[in-house]
Amino acid sequence: MSLPTLLILAIVIAVSALLITDKVRADLLALLTLVALGVTGLVRPEDLFSGFSRSAVITILALFIITGGLERTGATRILGAQLGRLAGTKEPRAVAAVMVITALLSLIMNNIAAAAVMLPGVIGLTRRTELRPSRLLMPLAFASLLGGMATLFATSNILVSAALADQGFRPYGVLDFLPVGLPMAAAGILYMALAGRRLLPEHGLGGEKGPRRPSVSLSETYGLAEAVSGAYVKPGSVMAGRTLAEGGWGRQLGLSVVGLSRGGGLVLAPSYDHKVIEGDVVIFTGSASDDDLGRYGLIRTDDPAWQGKFTSTQVSLVEVTLAPRSPFAGKTLRELNFRQKYDLNVLALWRAGQTIREGIAGLPLQFGDALLVQGFRERIRLLRDEPGFLILEEDVEEPAPGGKAWLAAGLTAAAVALSAVGVLPIALATFTCALLMVLFGCLSMDEAYGAIEWRAVFLIAGMLPLGLAMTRTGTADLVGSLLVRLLGGWGPLALAGGLFLAAMLLTQVMGGQATAVVIAPIAIAAAASLGADPRAVGLAVAMGCSTAFLTPFGHPSNVLVMGPGGYTLRDYTRVGLPLTLLLFAVLLGSLAVWMNVR
Fold first, then answer.
1. Residue 47 and residue 50: Cα distance in Å, rounded?
2. Would you call 285 helix, strand, or coil by DSSP?
3. How far apart are CA 524 and CA 530, in angstroms?
4. Separation CA 567–CA 132 (nearest Å)
5. Beta bridge partners of 370
């Protein structure tokens, strides 16, 4: 065994161990791997940073921008808006509707983005019906993975395609995954709608045992209407001439200001530095006695400008919970400087089936809590980018998706069609689509930069040279030949099945992206050594990298729903193991047909 091969194996083992133990951030580890490959001379200097210009990375980067354009124009709501009509009130039908719509989105979107786009709609559906969140959220996450199996646009599929190109084979086209991925997706959706849902726990949001009363809005869910009062600011009031921050409405009186009426006009969600003047009527939630108000020169009153609405085209109500492993658990909103940092109002807190409206700022946050937050949509976007919080549902008065939404959808469809028929390479088609979305105003250039998940880009670009090094040093051939000795006697299908299982198991702990980079070169080399079709064996690896159903940590979509669904590790294993075995059987059957036809 040569020295370069020994070095490559040592790096692969070290990287795998660090990924499994989560000792180093995955994107940082990828860059450290890149440096190690350069220092040891395993990758030539001109190829060391080639990952940043590879078509696979450009495709993934473009897909993030396309996803951002679809979200910001409201194109994704075209499908999401149909959820309530299609789901009905019966659980089997609702599970099928949620999964089909999510799978359709994940055909052309990043999987985690498809799940995140659908999450508020699914939570809203459970609010309005007797359906339980725990019976719909795991199917939502699983559907985002199943849909990604059917086209090239899943990240692991793109990486396996890149590995094929590295070894001199024809990469996959957009629709090459359909013969295998579509039957697997269909089987997964049927399983969850008919049997898998019965294995899920039955409880409310965040593991809540008692059901909430069905409602049509967040304000109804939290009973805000009856909790709102108004305070007239008398001449000479100590609150007059001060901003809301300076007046200390929350700190001094324990009130949350939801609006400010002046001269018959109403400002919803006034900012932290909004100045209060004499004659204003401040609309608030929270309890303060008339004596308490009087000491500050305030008189309780009703205001005709208040129409009972908490939202507008600019102002939203959102429900927020702590993300899994959030660093904010155990801290109070006051300690987090939540109001100052985000300029958003927290109007109520839901904990253990109870609504709390008083003293919220001083309560240590717990996993499973839900916060009702009011504010301008551009401020809420800051909250969406905060990894410690997760937005569950949003109430906002907004227009239906307009021309830009259809433009974004049309550009995306054109990119898919042009790449599917071979008119343009996939990287060029998606990158052109992303640029046209910016050019035509579907999103700004700054929003395009913000839509890119840079951690994923650096992870993939940093890890791709590792796969290249495995190929060029002969390490992939060496390990592949060992696999042929173990599995080759049973034929190509057994080899493909064994590699699927290996990729699937590694994905549960390493994630699909890193697994694809490590396993794909070995699989392709093993197939070539056996005389099997490398593209068919590569498909098995790609499907294994998307079969992340046994643990919540195999894919971010699973983590996304873990907190809101109140799931445990055991829940994923109980539901995911039969699904994984079913998909394995469907894979073998589909690959058998593929290999015979080819």
1. 5
2. strand
3. 10
4. 13
5. 321, 350
Q: Are 34 and 48 in contact (CB under 8 A)?
A: yes
Report the pLDDT value the prediction gives residue 191, as an integer from 0 to 100: 94
- The pTM (predicted TM-score) of the whole model is 0.74
Tokens of 155: 């990240």
Output the pLDDT for position 121: 76
CA angle 178, 180, 185 (to 5 degrees): 80
Percent of the chain scoring above 90 in pLDDT = 10
The arithmetic mean of pLDDT across residues 151-177, rounded, is 85
| Cα angle 177, 183, 188; round to 5 | 115
DSSP result, 464-482: HHHHHHHHHTTHHHHHHHH
Dump pLDDT digits (tens) for 277-329: 888 888 888 777 888 888 888 888 877 667 677 777 778 888 888 775 678 88
**Residue 388 CB contacts under 8 Å (≥ 6 apart), including other chains:** 322, 323, 326, 327, 328
DSSP lists the bridge partners of residue 376 as: 315
CA atoms within 13 A on the CB side of 96: 15
- Which of 142, 94, 127, 139 lies closest to 205, judged by CA? 127
**Alpha-carbon span 201 to 567, nearest angstrom:** 8
Distance (Å) of CA 139 to CA 85, 135, 324? 18, 7, 18
**Torsion angles phi and psi, residue 43, rounded to 5:** -125, 135
Q: Is residue 438 within 8 Å of 65, Cβ to Cβ? A: yes
Exposed, middle or buried, 75 (CB in 10 Å: 0-12/13-18/19+)? buried
- Please give the Cα distance from 528 to 521 (Å, whole number): 11
Per-residue pLDDT tens for 125-159?
A: 777 777 888 888 899 999 999 998 988 888 888 88
The residue to which tokens 């490590």 are assigned: 518
